[in-house]
Structure formats: structure tokens, C-alpha cells
From TrEMBL:
Residues 1-18 form the signal peptide. This is Telomeric repeat-binding factor 2. Residues 42-51 have a biased composition (Acidic residues). The lineage of its organism: Bacteria, Bacillati, Bacillota, Bacilli, Bacillales. The keyword Plastid does not apply.
Length: 208
């Protein structure tokens, strides 16, 4: 009888010990799961806020904006640096011609203004004169709306040939504008944030 009671007590002791160990193991596993979920949630929040190991943050902070400053009131012979979100180049206003006829074609507005220009490609991609001057117009002192340029065969030729990176090319732009005491060639006037703004100012007396 003694041995029987002793055996029962011993078995109960083993049973209670096993139960306690099982409960402790379950508590430990639950704690591990909670801790893992917490870390995962923190990592998710960091990624959403761009504060993870830096991939998203670096992309945002590494974006390059327009660094070239506006250059206003330049004169014949001056060179400007133009930078936009597509390309980068230098443009020099070499000479200006003001005439009432372009070849055999008389002006409809008052006179023609022919701008001789040189473009140097500072980007890593080919560039054409048409692309470089896509946002260029000529204003008069009295009218700030601006006139667009065009070509007349035999007078001013199309400027479509590519300018390789690091190379320069010269060409002309033709404008039919009203007569004025002063003219302003503008580049990227309404492209704030996408390009720097450049102007060249000259009078008919400065023309060749």
C-alpha cells in the first residue's frame, strides 16, 4: 500500500511538472510571435514612410532638380547655359539681322529678324536645333506675347541635324515680327521648374 501511494504521488509530480513546462513553452512561443509581429509592423511602417534602409528615401533625396540659374538681359555675343528635364546645352547669340524682306518674301508683320546662333550639346544624348529652341520666341518692346520662329528655303534652312554630345553646331532662326526699338529672345519663359529662363535683348541698331 505504501508503494502504491508513493507511486501515485510520484506520477502526479511528473504530471504537474510536465504541465508547467508545457505552459511555459506556450508562453515563450506566444511572446516570440508577438515580438516578430511587432518588428514586422515597424518594418512595414518604415517602408511606407521611406525610412527603411534608404532605398525609397535615397530615390527621393537623390532626384536632381534644375541647377542652372535664370540668365536675363544677355546681349549679342553672350553665351547662356540652358538646362531642362530633358537635356543641357549652351547657346550663343552670334549675330542679328533685321530686314523687311526674306529672299523675295516681304514681311507681313513689319520686318524679319534673323538670329544666328551656336548650340553646344552638354548632355550625353544627341540634340537638334529644333529641340534646343522648342520653347524659344521673340518679343518686341511693346508686345510680350512673343512670335514663333520658322524657316524659308534658301534664306534660313531647317535645323534638324543632330548635334553629338560635346559637339557644337551653328544655325539660324527666322521671325516675322512688328518693328520695334527693342527685341527680346526668350527661352523657356513659361517652364518654371522644368527649365531655367533665358533672355537675349538687342536693338535693330545692333543688327549686322
Amino acid at each position: 500500500m505504501k508503494y502504491l501511494c508513493f507511486s501515485i504521488v510520484l506520477l502526479l509530480g511528473f504530471f504537474l511538472t510536465a504541465c508547467n513546462e508545457g505552459e511555459q513553452q506556450n508562453i515563450t512561443e506566444n511572446d516570440d510571435v508577438s515580438e516578430g509581429t511587432s518588428e514586422s509592423e515597424i518594418g512595414s511602417d518604415d517602408q511606407e514612410n521611406g525610412s527603411d534602409d534608404g532605398t525609397t528615401g535615397e530615390t527621393k533625396n537623390g532626384e536632381e532638380g534644375i541647377s542652372a540659374e535664370d540668365q536675363l538681359g544677355l546681349k549679342i555675343g553672350d553665351t547662356a547655359k540652358v538646362e531642362n528635364n530633358f537635356t543641357e546645352f549652351e547657346v550663343t547669340l552670334d549675330a542679328v539681322e533685321v530686314t523687311e524682306k526674306a529672299g523675295e518674301t516681304p514681311s507681313e508683320q513689319g520686318n524679319y529678324v534673323i538670329l544666328d546662333l551656336t548650340v553646344k550639346n552638354l548632355s550625353n544624348e544627341p540634340l537638334t536645333g529644333v529641340d534646343a529652341f522648342s520653347s524659344t520666341s521673340l518679343e518686341t518692346k511693346e508686345n510680350s506675347s512673343g512670335f514663333t520662329w520658322f524657316y524659308i528655303d534658301g534664306v534660313v534652312e531647317a535645323w534638324n541635324s543632330e548635334i553629338a554630345p560635346g559637339e557644337a553646331q551653328s544655325g539660324s532662326l527666322l521671325f516675322d515680327v512688328a518693328k520695334s526699338e527693342e527685341y527680346i529672345m526668350t527661352m523657356a519663359k513659361h517652364l518654371e521648374g522644368l527649365s531655367n529662363y533665358v533672355t537675349f535683348t538687342f536693338s535693330p541698331e545692333e543688327s549686322k
